[in-house]
From TrEMBL:
Domain Radical SAM core: 189-402
Organism (species): Pendulispora brunnea
Cofactor field: [4Fe-4S] cluster
The keyword Methyltransferase belongs to this UniProt entry's keyword annotation: yes
Protein name (database record): B12-binding domain-containing radical SAM protein
All residue ranges annotated as the B12-binding domain in the record: 47-134
Highest rank taxon of the organism: Bacteria
CDD domains: Radical_SAM
UniProt KW keywords: Iron, Iron-sulfur, Metal-binding, Methyltransferase, S-adenosyl-L-methionine, Transferase
């Protein structure tokens, strides 16, 4: 029986340490999905290096490694180590798909470009038989069940495959980052761990820095809602009640999202996800989301300055509406995790204090700051490359906060210190008190959990003033 070893690498911190953790709040579905796509007669093992060590002597016929962001450097190192031991290696995922293919092919026997559904099994069979086509490119996007919007500027069609909804075949026991021992014994861990599931793929928006729209060419597909509800019930059968939709934007097809949320109400779950601020502007959608158990959303506000949003091709965010939008979300008891960028063109050193004031005034629960990251394959990367402004070509540093692009509105040192200072003040005790002490009318238990998360971050930042190199 041929054997496949699926590896999700970790990444290195700037000081060279490999990031490891003993528990993590969720688990991706990439590797369980690839397992479900392997031919039936293959024996498959999965390892996530965040929690476990990679076995370089695993008796695999083929090793498949996926990578996002800074994982790519570690993925290349592991690929080299496996190949030095005579193993066949295939690389895939959004980074490998979007970056120049020769960079990855220097470390692998084959690469998968795009969604694995239509090509992965063929790549595995070829490699096991000692052949390789080099690049296995998904010629089509996969029909996922329900609605679709066609890709923009792309001649790929939507494929009818034998895997119209691969998520139905996922075995949740394969999740690598769940601590089953703690799951069984600790109610706190049950509150902490979020079970992953998927409703849609892609996003139709044009944000110029975004790897998702580059990877999916602005196509958007949702699953059949019966199949999603089936996943919800599978998770509930394990005792899971806190769910995380891994989608990039589950509300992009508003009608489909409303149907999903309405169907989730009787399931009595709690869920979180990321989506655009547009959710706050459709009262029916927002109400259904809240009633279906939405307790928190990561939202890419990015900037509260219109010209900056314009330059990101994110005009739909409409900064002047943020105050009203955030109030609407708060009124529904939905915690907002704001994603904000520092160092974009048009931002000067005043941006730090203004952003801090805005976030505190509007009682944002958590924040993640980002320095501009020119991910290969995005329009932003091309723009910065042509302008000669990319400061760092070491992909292992493409994390949340390394300085990768020469800023224009301030010098690099001001950006670095402003970025760290704003984090420190946002998670300082006075700001936490202002943001978190007024209890919402709904979801008080979740609010308390987010208060604890704030206090933990405050504690962590006291010891690690530049905390952005960490995974999430
Ligand atoms: C869960 C998740 C995480 C988890 C992962 C936990 C874990 N280890 O299990 C956490 C929170 C740790 C994480 C962290 C980061 N993430 Co992340 N993450 C995701 C998320 C939300 C879901 C991934 C998933 O399970 N998807 C479901 C599966 C089925 O889809 P998929 O992964 O796309 O896989 C399909 C194809 O891409 C392809 N494929 C993917 N991998 C491989 C590998 C092989 C070998 C093959 C053949 C095919 C293949 O086939 C699959 C089936 O079609 C995605 C967004 C998304 N919606 O996918 C972002 C995403 C993958 N993350 C991203 C990024 C940037 C990061 C960070 C770098 C963020 C940061 N700035 O620090 C970090 C770094 C990670 C690290 N070093 O560990 C980007 C990747 C961009 C890029 N060009 O690489 C994404 C797309 C989010 C985004 N909006 O930009 N992430
Ligand atoms: S809204 Fe989010 S997921 Fe969609 S293109 Fe913009 S950044 Fe990407």
């Amino acid at each position: 029986m041929p054997r496949l070893y699926l590896v999700s690498p970790s990444h290195h911190l700037a000081d060279g340490r490999l990031v490891k953790t003993t528990r993590y709040w969720t688990s991706g579905l990439t590797m369980p999905t690839l397992k479900a796509l392997a031919p039936r007669d293959w024996k498959v093992d999965i390892v996530d290096e965040l929690m476990a060590d990679v076995d370089l002597d695993h008796p695999a016929d083929v090793v498949a490694i996926g990578a996002m962001g800074p994982q790519i450097s570690r993925a290349y190192d592991l690929a080299d180590a496996f190949r030095a031991r005579g193993k066949k290696v295939v690389l895939g995922g959004p980074w490998v798909s979007l970056a120049p293919h020769e960079r990855s092919l220097a470390h692998a026997d084959a690469i998968v470009v795009g969604e694995a559904e239509t090509v992965f099994a063929r790549a595995l069979e070829d490699l096991a038989a000692g052949r390789s086509a080099g690049v296995y490119r998904a010629g089509e996007f996969v029909r996922m069940g329900k609605t679709l919007s066609r890709p923009k500027n792309d001649d790929r069609t939507i494929a009818e495959t034998s895997h119209p909804d691969i998520y139905q075949n996922i075995d949740y026991r394969d999740l690598q980052l769940i601590r089953w021992d703690k799951w069984k014994t600790s109610p706190f861990y049950r509150l902490y761990f979020h079970w992953p599931l998927v409703f849609s793929r892609g996003c139709p928006h044009p944000c110029n820095y975004c790897a998702v729209q580059a990877f999916y060419k602005r196509s958007y597909r949702t699953r059949n809602i019966d199949a999603v509800i089936e996943n919800v019930r599978q998770i509930k059968a394990f005792g899971g009640r806190n769910l995380l939709f891994l989608d990039d934007n589950p509300i992009a097809d508003v009608d489909a999202a409303k149907e999903l949320f309405a169907r989730l109400i009787p399931e009595k779950i709690k869920w979180t996800s990321q989506c655009t601020i547009e959710i706050a502007r459709d009262p029916e959608l927002l109400d259904l989301a809240a009633r279906s158990g939405c307790v928190a959303l990561s939202i890419g506000l990015e900037s509260n300055e219109e010209p900056v949003l314009d330059s990101l091709k994110k005009r739909f965010n409409r900064a002047p509406r943020y105050a009203e939008d955030l109030a609407a979300l708060r009124a529904k008891g939905i915690q907002v995790i704001a994603l904000m960028m520092f160092g974009m063109d048009g931002q000067t050193d005043g941006v730090f204090d203004e952003t801090l004031k805005f976030l505190v005034d509007h009682k944002v629960s958590l924040v993640k700051f980002f320095t501009p990251a020119p991910y290969p394959g995005t329009a932003y990367h091309e723009e910065m490359r042509q302008a000669g402004r990319i400061l760092n070509e070491d992909w292992g540093r493409y994390d949340y906060g390394s300085l990768l692009v020469q800023p224009t509105g301030m010098d690099a040192r001001t950006l670095r210190s402003g970025f760290d200072r704003t984090y420190k003040h946002f998670y300082g005790l006075p700001a936490i008190a202002k943001r978190m002490l007024a209890l919402p009318r709904r979801n008080r238990r979740e609010h308390a959990a987010y208060l604890v998360a704030n206090l933990k971050t405050w504690h962590f930042l006291k010891k690690n003033p530049s905390a952005w190199g960490t995974i999430s």
